[in-house]
Design a protein that fits this description.
This protein is of the alpha/beta class. It is built from 6 helices and 7 strands.
Amino acid sequence: MAHAAVRPGMKVLDVAGGTADLSRRLARRVGPTGEVWLTGINGPMLAIGRDRLRDDGQAQPVVRCDAERLPFPDGYFDRCMVAFGLRNMTRKEVALAEMTRVLRPGGRLLVLEFSRVWKPLAPAYDAYSFRLLPWLGQRVAGDADSYRYLAESIRMHPDPPTLAAMMREAGLSGVRWFDMTGGVVALHEGVRV
């Protein structure tokens, strides 16, 4: 949130925002003169997000849509954010191009996503991801497959340099990333020219 530098009056798009974890905090930052649009493809998750925003007293718009076909005009938003959602998008390059399209010139796209863990941590992380996490998922939620999918989808997601190149190809400049938690997560950002 601090890195996004969202200020009062800004227009912010939360892509694949589901239960509104980011949108709720963003809405407080943009204040009554700004806008936060919560979007996602999963209707039941968006309903939870809508209700959470309402419970906070925030009358922010909620739109069910595909990130590969965003229903917004070119150059509308100051910030576009996607947290732990890009990994699940089929055509990441198309979604990145759409997110770039709806940013105003000088607007920033921020992508928070699971990444490649630092090599010394990889054996322990793989044991946790492929053995312990599915086992816990089965014991606690009765669903090992969802936790197996999580580990596999992380491995299929582009590494930081590849994702940075995809963001540049989508039309962003000044693309950079920051590894967090030993590389388990990375924050990528770029600016629309």
